[in-house]
Amino acid sequence: MGVKRQTDTNLTKYVLNRKAGRSIIERRPVFSPDGESLAIIVENIVRVYNIQTGDCVRTLESETPINELVAIEFPENEDYNLYGCSDCGCVITWTWEKGAVLREAKLQLPKDAKVLTFNLIDSNECFITAMEPANTQLYTASYSVRSGALNYEFATTRPLYYDIVRVSMGWCNGDRFAAVTNGTKVLFIQNMYKPHMRTQIVNHNKFRILSVSAHHRESAIAITDTIGRVTIITGNLYDYRTVAREVLHWHFLPPFAICFSVIGNYLFSGGMEKVLVKWTLGHLANKANEKAYIPRLPGMIRYITVNSSNIAITLSNNSVVIASAQMRVVSTILECGGISAASRARSWLVYHRPLDALLLPGRTGHLQLYSTATDKVLYNIDITEMNNLPSERRNLLPLETEVACAAVSADGSWLVTSEYRNDGINYPEEKLKFWSAQSKNTTPFKLNTCVNLSHGGCNVVSLALSNKGEFCVSAGLDQKFRIWRREKSSQTHRKKIIWSCLTACYYSSGIAHFLANPVLNNFKTGDVSLGKTEDSPYLKDVDEEDIIKKVFNLHKERTGFSRVEDDVFRKHDGDMGGVAISHDGSLIAAWFGSKLTLWDTHLCNLRTTLSHPALRPKGKHVMFGNNDAAHYLVCTTENCVAVWSLLSLTIKWLVQLKPMWLAGDPFSNKMAVITDNNDLFVFRPQSSEPILTRKNIVDPQTGVFTQCAFGAPIGDKVRLYIVRNDAEIFCLEPENSKAHGLEVMSRRNLPLSNFSALLAEQHLSEVQPAVPVSGQALNMESLGNTAISQFLSGAPHMVPPVAMMCTSFLQHLSGYEEIEEPQDEEDKEMEVDPQSSDDEDSSTPTLIGKHTPKATELWTPNYDNVKEKRLKKILNKPLLDLHTTGTLFGL
Fold it and tell me: CA-to-CA distance for 403 and 309, rounded, in angstroms?
């Protein structure tokens, strides 16, 4: 059994480990034959999760390096092999019981073709659709999964490629067929054994078809369209004129997923309403047209997979919900990520030390609490406590209230969050909330104080908390920062801790935002829909900016988007940037445009203003140093990192780069900055020479790192968590730290013989490798005493004859010493154990004299203090006590 670990061989001291945030919703999952596990594709590997606990129990990977897997599937009537296909056409067969790679075959695809879908016809053949670089039509063909040879190329069935391709395999007239939809109004039916038998079924009313599912036994298929209808088509599917249609209509928005039950008595559908619908089909007379629901799911439904007892629902928030056949949620498989697209533009990351967890944005209105110890999402904290706004057909992406900013005190006792919504029509919704940490509760934080319109309806851009959570500073687009203090309010029967605003500070007038934005002064009237509206033509036609495609791939959005942007205020000289509180809580640093200001915390007045031509046009982050660097102030702009000395009010050093984020360790003097080309620098404010540098740690084309935070250190070493714009979490930590690994099943796990099955793959041994003598400081005296004690501790009849003992050993027992020339350094006297001396006397033969021939010695003992005493004992006392010996042997 191997252990998969991700290490970087180019790094000698630190390694960059990919912790969490991979997408588990790109492909459709499958249930295991026993129904106890769920296999999910995660890029180029397959994770196997337990249904009841939601834990990952093992991981399957290929022997040949691949980019990503496009599909996995168990063949019908077989329960011992799992088949998968990569985008390059590599078909892998795993044995499910052992999890080892049984076979790998390369499909004979056209040059540079990329596989889009993979479906098994049986255990020997598969049907694939692929995209060729120079062709806008899909390539459809059947291949042998054992040899990779081409069986049939369906040249007449080549639909256009529109990024939404769904395929389902079914039965019609005893033959296997494939139903293919490409996101248009046409459904393509192709016989697998008779290439000439094919048809095209056009959806009535010309609405676009989004998903398709074929019945497992009967000649029937179910499709969903953009207007929300579910249509069941039965009959001879190769003749579109004779088919029968049954329309089921509950969905108001486009459904992205549909699936028949195993027996075929039920049909499951779901989409943008975040509701799973279970339809009872018409041939069950007692329950015809009956529906069951699982409402209020945390994301849009992308895929639905069923077996005889469970339902797997893949959601857009990077999670898979497992439900029973009775429509009750059993467990949830949740991975980091699933960040709402609107919050990606203003993302942040904070580390909570008591919980050893990261707080980062989650789905709409939520925070994710990711445990760095277990690499799991512990909580989804509902910050806004609001229902999701329903979508409309002309506005599929409504503007919802998002968490704009968050901060945690150094001791982890308080959390402060800001939420914001501005549709450009109604007055902006803006709240500042203070949360107290809970040690013994079902949730880690409890709401303490909620301040509505804390900045008059302007968005909060930065938050800072003191180390012990005594006061907070919030900066907003109203060009002011406000100081909030924790107080005790006396009520009738109890004392309660609340937060109140102490004062508001501004550098200029602080009213430019209100003068320029009429939304903050009066309400607009008119027949305008909230947010960004989409026209209805997407229901029937496919254009270049397809809103259906955008919604379906919303989880891939990296840059984020916002509906109402106040660009005019971003160019103003008085725009607020980052704020910070000093380690002792006496100073507040705040950016006002390109001017860095210092304020007294207790008097709430301006102490000084720091400016420099290199800090133009606008500051971004600011942070005070800690410990021995408390008299330094580190700040960043769009083009540089600068360190100010608070003693002389001058710049100590400045480095020109393009920083993305500045982070500091609240318990040490270390800081870190990441740049737009994924360079990482860890430094101390005292010196411009970094203590740790990593250039281009990840290719910027795959994603740009946007935030970082210091984790719990390992001694004096650094542990830094970094988040990419696709919500993936990386950790830069020492290479000798304990890394978390998942069990990997591959061909290497197969035993070579019956005997090798009894042996462990990894052997542990106490034998240490040989080390040169010059590299060790050996204590020869202690080693010699230990060896002699072990030799003489045995029974007398177990001691070897005298004739077989080596000369040097006997010389050591007799106290022989070679006369040597005096040396500069005197040898230390060897300590003699009196008890061991008695044992030696009883075992020393009387035949040994002083004039024994000289032998080669490994080392020379020194017995100056006991030499004469030992020789007298040897000469005066007999070797054996005849009386004692006779008594023992009965003589």
Answer: 38
How far apart CA 202 and CA 349 sit, in angstroms, is 49
Neighbours of 394 (CB within 10 A): 12
Over the stretch 101-111, which tens digit does the pLDDT of each residue have?
999 999 999 99
DSSP run (H or E) holding 883: helix 882-889
Query: Which residue's entry shows tokens 């309660």?
Result: 496
Q: What is the pLDDT of residues 759-768, one digit of tens each?
A: 555 555 555 5
pTM of the model: 0.78
* Pairing verdict, β 576-581 and 587-592: antiparallel
**CATH among 1.50.10.10, 3.40.47.10, 2.60.40.10, 2.130.10.10 for 343-388+400-506+509-520:** 2.130.10.10
d(CA 142, CA 93): 17
Q: pLDDT-based confidence at 887, cuts 50/70/90?
A: very low
Residue 52 dihedral angles phi and psi, to the nearest 5°: -75, -40
**How far from the centroid of its chain's Cα atoms is residue 586's Cα?**
38
> Measured between alpha carbons, how far is 150 from 346 in angstroms, rounded to an integer?
50
Q: Give dist(CA 418, CA 434) in Å, integer.
A: 9
Q: Residue 814: in which H helix or E strand, if any?
A: helix 807-814
Whole-angstrom CA distances from 119 to 37, 142, 176 are 21, 9, 12
Give the per-residue pLDDT at 675: 93
Query: Tokens 């369209």, residue?
Result: 225
SS3 of residue 88 by DSSP: coil
* CA gap 57, 36 in Å, rounded: 11
Q: Is 197 exposed, middle or buried (0-12, 13-18, 19+ CB in 10 A)?
A: middle
Report the C-alpha gap between 175 and 191 in whole angstroms.
Answer: 7
Dihedral pair phi/psi, residue 638, rounded to 5°: -70, -15
* Domain extent listing, the chain: 343-388+400-506+509-520, 794-889
At residue 777, the pLDDT reads 41
